[in-house]
Amino acid sequence: MADTVPILTRRNPVKASREAIAHDRATVHLLSVQLARFDGPYHHHDALELTAIEAGSGIRVLDGQVAPFGPGDLVLVPPQVAHVWWSRDAAQPVAARVLHLGLAALAGLPELREGGSGLAALDRPARIEGALAESVRAELRALADCAGLERLGRALALLGRIARAEAEVHWLERPLGRLPAGDAEPIGRVLAWIHRDYARPLRVAEGAALLHVTPAAFSRAFLRRVGRPFSVYVNDLRIAEACLALRRSRRPIAEVAWACGFPTLGHFHRQWVQRIGCAPRDYRREGPGAPGRRLRRPPESR
Prior knowledge:
Helix content: 25-40%
Number of strands: 12
CATH superfamily of the largest domain: Jelly Rolls
Mean pLDDT: 83
Strand order of the largest sheet: 1-3-10-5-8-11-12
Number of helices: 9
Low-confidence stretches: 1-17, 288-292
Order of helices and strands: EEEEEEEEEEEHHEHHHHHHH
Radius of gyration: 19 Å
Distance between the termini: 44 Å
């Protein structure tokens, strides 16, 4: 059976950390996560991870890429790629099913080195959608009822299906690289600060002070580690928060824009259309539930 434990442990919430997973005891770990909210650290580990959100909504940061999540969200996280799920409302509990596969224990298998049909193809973060996502979620639930070699075999078969899929697997932008803990911690502090204070004006000088570097050095480091400029990432997060707010409430769009840190409605609309590709009112019309559209990378960050 799956263990009911938090995958994001309560370490210092403003630090990125390396999560230890006991692959000496099992190659496949299946976790059932049930929490008041996700508030753990930006972290990474040596396992291939598949996370299916079953309840709750919030913000997902994966390899420096920010997006809203909700029930049904299903993503693949390669080893050593930093990630975190954050949610704010403790009145809306969160639940997820998480599979960890220790690839190092299987490194000698030639099937893992095979081209497009082997697990070596799963070297980029991805979001899984459609009928494939439905079947993957069903198989994750079924894995809770098996163990040992049966669980390992079924987990490998499941990941092999994902590796061979095409239309329903949306590969995210290139991984920024496998971050050693010493390199990941500073950016984890910065992302947690942005997540906490996104609704007010944020300045490069504040981020630089967090890391005790000059503003110019901070901007270079942020771009190198996150893959886009500081101002673009901040607006990514604000738009993701606006997506959640528009789905959760009937508040006026101008009020949502202001609450998410945009000083004018015009600025909000420009940033929104660059990332979402439709008007905010059309996005809201799609109805409640998981955020439907994926945030696009805005032109200024390419």
